[in-house]
Specification:
The protein is of the alpha/beta class. Helix content is about 40%, strand content about 15%. The protein has a 6-stranded parallel β-sheet with strand order 2-1-3-4-5-11. Strands 7-6-8-9-10-12 form a 6-stranded mixed β-sheet, sandwiched between helices. Helix 8 (about 180-190) packs across helix 9 (about 205-220). The termini are far apart.
Length: about 350
């Protein structure tokens, strides 16, 4: 655009971009969709002119034509905790690369969700909804979603089916925790730990329930006595206090297996700074998640790893598979866990 040319008054349209670029209206639409074929030089020209005219596609109009909103709802219990914030960041980045925007919804503290908020979510007509909390049941979501099929992150309980035939259609990302927990217990056992404590997470969390049951099963299979349970809630402060109580009120432990890494940080600090015990010489500590802070030298935490990149890729695959096959039976992806050994066991 030259100095003498004036920018169009009002909102620029696709027709204006097409006229300036001397292409069809369809070509303009294709230029803004990275998944459509278009000669690179033509796409570059169209996007350049669109920028000069300050043109952006009308998402609402496109949704009416395509039937897709390119919106993904994400239901989480917390947006500030280390694991959730890192997962939301990675998921949002991956979804944006696929042309989706993210709608974030937060549950109550008991992991339930206000139905008025669900009705509000329905108004956006999302293409998909990912529920990171199992307390918002498929039966509940089904009443508020039209064409979207929800995705649940699921932690199968050892020794149970967990399959509900009467549930509405939903897709699942199954996270298997046994391998990582078995590797952790084997490591502790190899270093002579016999009295192992489990620092629990939030009581209403199914991930925590599955984690504790799996730990009990693995320890029983390895001939160990059941774990002593110190009640936490996934937070640093609760873990710190529970660790002090474990040693000053209870009989202590040779090792503490925390339900998450932040809890493990609280355990380590309580042991070192309040109880004047050494980690790992006096007490060994293992966490769960492998958040970005776990390798920090102050903690150097041995932990059971959820591979965040794998989780995000699996969730995106489930979204794309469902959009390509809207009437198919429930899709499932399955991920495993593994132990990352650092300096808190040895």
């Amino acid at each position: 655009m030259t100095d003498t040319e004036q920018a169009p008054r009002g909102r620029a349209t696709a027709e204006m971009v097409a006229a300036r670029a001397q292409v069809s209206r369809v070509a303009v639409s294709r230029a803004f969709n990275p998944h459509t074929s278009l000669k690179p030089e033509k796409r570059e020209l169209i996007l350049k002119i669109a920028q000069e005219l300050n043109y952006t596609p009308d998402r609402a109009a496109r949704a009416l034509v395509s039937g897709r909103s390119h919106l993904v709802g994400v239901i989480v219990p917390d947006v500030c905790s280390h694991w959730e914030s890192q997962e939301i960041d990675a998921l949002t980045t991956a979804l944006q690369a696929e042309g989706f925007a993210t709608l974030l919804f937060k549950t109550r503290t008991d992991y339930s969700m206000d139905e008025q908020l669900l009705a509000y979510m329905r108004g956006f007509n999302p293409d998909s909804v990912i529920a990171f909390v199992e307390n918002v049941k498929p039966h509940t979501l089904a009443r508020f979603l039209d064409r979207a099929v929800p995705i649940y992150v699921h932690y199968p309980l050892p020794g149970t089916s967990d399959e509900a035939e009467d549930e509405p259609l939903h897709d699942r990302l199954n996270v298997l925790q046994r391998d990582g927990i078995d590797q952790a217990v084997a490591l502790l056992q190899g270093f002579g730990a016999k009295r192992i404590a489990y620092l629990s997470g939030a009581e209403k969390s199914r991930a925590n329930t599955s984690r504790e049951r799996t730990l009990r099963q693995v320890m029983a299979d390895r001939g160990l006595t059941p774990p002593v349970v110190a009640r936490g809630d996934f937070s640093y402060d609760a873990a710190y206090q529970a660790t002090i109580d474990l040693f000053r009120v209870g009989d202590g432990a040779d090792a503490i297996f925390a339900a998450n890494d932040v809890g493990a940080f609280g355990v380590i600090d309580a042991l070192r700074h309040e109880l004047k015990l050494r980690v790992p010489e006096d007490v060994k500590v293992i966490g769960f998640d492998d958040i970005a802070q776990s390798h920090w030298k102050s903690y150097n935490l041995t932990t059971v790893k959820f591979d965040l990149d794998e989780r995000v890729r699996a969730l995106v695959r489930l979204i794309l598979r469902r959009l390509n096959n809207p009437d198919a039976p429930g899709f499932q992806e399955t991920l495993n866990t593994r132990l990352v050994v650092r300096g808190t066991v040895g």
